Amino acid sequence: MREVGLKIRTAGMALALVALVGGCSSIRDHRGYIIDQTLLDSIQPGVDNRLSVEKTLGRPTFVSQFGTKDYYYVSQLVKTPPFGRPRTAEETILRVRFDPAGNVVAVDKRGMEQVARISPEGDKTPTLGRHRSLLEDLFGNIGAVGAGGAGGAAAPSGPGPNGS
């Protein structure tokens, strides 16, 4: 009887461990445009225009604001490790370039090689001004309100709210 209880307890602990470890897998999430290579290959420079590109690939993720109105399609694969921050594992940016008449000139495909990794410095940013303590912040204005330039109770002389 004792062996059966020990086997059940051991099996229960093993099952709980498997469930715990299974919950610690990273999460993969796709964000943005889903690239279909067949549709992308059907876009031909000199043949297609803005309307045909929108009908084939769909609405772009965004349109450039300056110069020619190029279409951009952004696709990202994001991985989130257990107890960690999401990180972009793959990124693809499709740029469909148009001439001034609205016809396709070229389709460019870029990946993670164009992404710049910036690691900001963790120190404090230097600022101008005084370094005050908490007590100076709390009690620094006592006696200073109304002290400078009050000049009595004369009414403002001009049409504005401050007399100007």
Automatic annotation (TrEMBL):
<dbReference type="GO" id="GO:0019867">
    <property type="term" value="C:outer membrane"/>
</dbReference>
<dbReference type="InterPro" id="IPR007450">
    <property type="entry name" value="BamE_dom"/>
</dbReference>
<feature type="domain" description="Outer membrane protein assembly factor BamE">
    <location>
        <begin position="32"/>
        <end position="105"/>
    </location>
</feature>
<dbReference type="Pfam" id="PF04355">
    <property type="entry name" value="BamE"/>
</dbReference>
<protein>
    <submittedName>
        <fullName>Membrane protein SmpA</fullName>
    </submittedName>
</protein>
<keyword id="KW-0472">Membrane</keyword>
<keyword id="KW-0732">Signal</keyword>
<dbReference type="InterPro" id="IPR037873">
    <property type="entry name" value="BamE-like"/>
</dbReference>
